[in-house]
């Protein structure tokens, strides 16, 4: 039941975190276009999410905005309850929300940088999925999907983004383990896809430079790849192709040799040297 099918989105209830802007908004638009019955826009920026919901809401698809701080377990639980009550059990969950804190680890503040990054990027997807998994596994009348937006930073170490990389490594490990557990427990109708893109021009990585042969992807290109992989139930989607190449080199080369190749050839280790991040909004 993990082949691509129009029935994955048609008449489905879709939950998207970080849905007010960027790739999250693109997923929301695509869900409405593909025939979803209802879409829940979860975002910490409720006014922006509300504006998008008002734009997309219509007679064929109910779109509602929910303000939620994903670093709060209590808010996740409460918002999940509201979503189920108002829109029904979701069939598709897209864990898209994420934050970036660049810079040297020694300069990272525990309260401002480390805890929020780990909470929003790694823990929140687990808690969101845990809220909705019982309903998804119980419903065998259709296919269900969980799409977790990770990062190429979760596949290769990189100076200047230690905490962000740690959060995405954790996300990838959990996402893959969950996928295997669902298959082994006879719940393959809930397919898990992990998306690992390199830099995407959403504003989160302003100033970052793509490594050799790795252009900065547009949100449209990245979201399309993630969406298609999710529909097909593919375990992992790595974009662009150099992400998989880097993983292969890292896997076969001795660590010190890889350090030289990553630094001097691919320029991975200097990609965050001019990082500024989103400066507003």
Portion in helices = 40-55%
Tally of DSSP helical segments: 8
Mean pLDDT: 88
Question: What is the total tally of β strands?
Answer: 7
Description:
This protein is of the alpha/beta class. It contains 8 helices and 7 strands. Strands 3-2-1-4-5-6-7 form a 7-stranded parallel beta sheet, with helices on both faces. The longest helix is centred in the middle third of the chain and has 29 residues, at 110-138. The radius of gyration is 18 Å and the shape is globular. The termini are far apart.
Which descriptors apply to this entry?
7-stranded parallel beta sheet, 8 helices, 281 residues, alpha/beta, 14% strand
What layout of secondary structure does this protein have?
Elements lengths: L12 E5 L4 H12 L4 E6 L2 H11 L5 E6 L5 H15 L4 E4 L14 H29 L5 E6 L12 H23 L5 E8 L21 H14 L3 E4 L1 H12 L2 H11 L16
Parallel strand pairs: 1-2, 1-4, 2-3, 4-5, 5-6, 6-7
Helix pairs in contact: 1-6, 3-4, 4-5
In short:
The chain is α/β, with parallel strands linked by helices and 281 residues long.
